Each structure stands twice: as structure tokens, then as C-alpha cells.
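Example record

One chain of 222 residues, shown exactly as stored in the release files.
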Amino acid sequence: MEANRVKRRGGRRPAPAQPPVDSKERIIACAEEVFARKGFAGARTHEIAELAGVNKAMLYYYFGSKEKLLRAVLERILFELIGLSQEILNQHLPPTEALEKFYRGFFHYVARHRNFSRLTTMDLGSEGAYLVTMFENFFRPLFERGARFIERGVARGEFRPVDARQFFVSIYGLTISYFADARFVSILMGQDAMAEDVMEARLEHALDLIFTGLGIKRPSRR
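Predicted C-alpha cells for this chain:
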């Protein structure tokens, strides 16, 4: 009855209680999956909310629109990788250790965001320009930082001469393609490509290829 009196007087209902913080992260994680599977146009907010175990009102409470939710998904993915890079740089490790630690982090990052390649190649409609802007402002500087790292190693004689940018594109493709085509890779290998032991073997093989490509030995494992 009180709610009806508020409505008749034209007053606003009291603001809803703050939902638990973890629900926001759950919405973003579920949105990442739905956007990757159905594309921006095909994704429905009610499906995302249902998958996250919340109601649509909570989804709009946090994000306001499907467009802003997509931005939150993309930002979380990119900022996580930037944070990984910064963390390793701040440790001032020897080049070989920094390279191995970064690639391990990148591999596990892609494993956590297996839909990364789909999100960055699907038709995002009006949000496509936003994705390009994000890549130019955040991802490309990270790529250039990595290329300069390789170039400095080549200049100091620590790495064999390579085209640093081509080398990083190869690392990117080597990693992304494994997870993007995991189902097909599983068929080729006759085993689950996403099984923990198989992924670990893949990680070690990729590191061997990277270090061989630079003409250096991998640091000893402690």
C-alpha cells in the first residue's frame, strides 16, 4: 500500500539496496560468453542476466545499456593484459626471465578469455569504432612496448636478429589460434585441447619455439 501511495503522489521509489559487488563481475563474465557466441546484435540482455543469476534491473543498474556492458567486457580484457605487462616491467627481470614470465602470463590470460578472438573479430555494429579506438589507445602501445623489448635485446646481442613486430604477431597468432580453434585442435590431436595437462604441454612447446626463434636458451626452472 505504501508503494502505491508513493506512486500516486508521483514521488520516486526509494533507491534499491546495493547489490553484492561480485554480481557485477559475474555479469561481465557471462556477457563476454554471450557476446562471443551470438555477436553484439544477437546478444540479449535477459539471456546475460539469466546466465549471471541476476535480474535485468540489476544489469541495467550497473551498466545502463547493452553498449556500455560490451565496453565493460572489452575494457576488462584489455586492462588485465596491460596490468600483467606493467607488473613484469616493474620487477626489472633479466630479459630471458621477463620474456618467459610475460608469455606464461599471456598464455594463461588467453586461456581465461578464450573468446578474445571472437570478440575482436565479430561485427560490433556502432561499437566497432570504440573497439578500434581501444586497440589504438591501449593494445597497440603494449604491442610497441614488446617490440622495443625485442629490438633492445637484438641491439645488445642477447637475441638473434629478428623483425620484432613480425615476431610479436607470430606469438599472438601462435597463442590465439590454439584457443580459438580448440575444438578442431582436439580432433587433430585426439585429446581434449583444453585439458590442463594438454594446455601445459602446449605452453611449454610454445615457449620452446619462441626461445628457439630468438636463438637463446630458456632460463632454468627453479
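Notes: Residues 74-222 form a domain with the Tetracycline Repressor; domain 2 fold (CATH 1.10.357.10).
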